[in-house]
Amino acid sequence: MNVEDKKQERSKAKMAVTVAARRLIGAYNRDCEYDILKDSMFELEKVFDDFCVINEEYELIVSDEKYAEHRVVNGEDIRTSRDNVKRCYQEARSVFVNVKATIEQKARQQSAGPVKVALKNDICRIHELITVVDESFKLENVNMAALQLDKNDLQSILNIICDNMAKLGSIETQEQVNLIQEDVDAIIRAVYNCIRKINLFLHEQQAFVKSLHIETATLPSETNTPPENINTVFLPEINTNIPLRTLRPSTPCLPPEINTNTPLRTLRPSTPCLPPEINTNTPLRTLRPSTPCLPPEINTNTPLRP
What we know:
Elements: H1 3-29, H2 34-62, E1 72-73, E2 76-77, H3 78-137, H4 144-171, H5 174-218
Antiparallel strand pairs: 1-2
Helix pairs in contact: 1-2, 1-3, 2-3, 3-4, 3-5, 4-5
């Protein structure tokens, strides 16, 4: 590609940047939606990148002395022309950046609103709990169980406040966070002092109850005192001078004796039981053939009954 073609290509890229910048500024002046401005900014970024690439190639070509006459474009030096295009791009981009920052700030305010309200409510709850605890210490009979519950509530609410402050720091700017940080720091100190007071009181009460148990355990017990009158039961004395009675040895019980001289009785052999004999000379009886049972004959000459 010769220098003239590259020069024309550069001029077209410069015109594209100018048109895209004007389109973006015009959309902003017409109060168009953010999506339209976003699309215009995307197009401006694209054409400006193309111009930067083409301009670098053109500057490389005209750096040669034989193309020195092409270093001036439309009465402007190529560097001055490049700066003008860049300034046009930056003006349009600054408009879009301001619009984007405004929209993001509104979104942060909307999301930070509930967090700020929650912080305010939690701080009020802590003030009320601290007042209740202070009033409890003025009573004659302090309810230790209620103090323990108040202590747990203070700790849980304080944890919620710390979480909301961390969430607020990720949403709002540091200046906005600093406006609330002082109140939060003051409430944290108040909660720590109140919890410390409760812990000391509970520790004193536990030590007092423990000392009472020790004193009760050291008192003499009534069951340890010996009774005055106790009826004792005396066992009769055993006379060890009585001689022991001797026992006769018992005769063992033996089975009766068997007389082995008695002769044994002989048994007769038994006659076997045989079946009766069969006479083979008896003639066999002949059987008559049986007459078959036939159905009665049907008279076909009999007329049918109507």
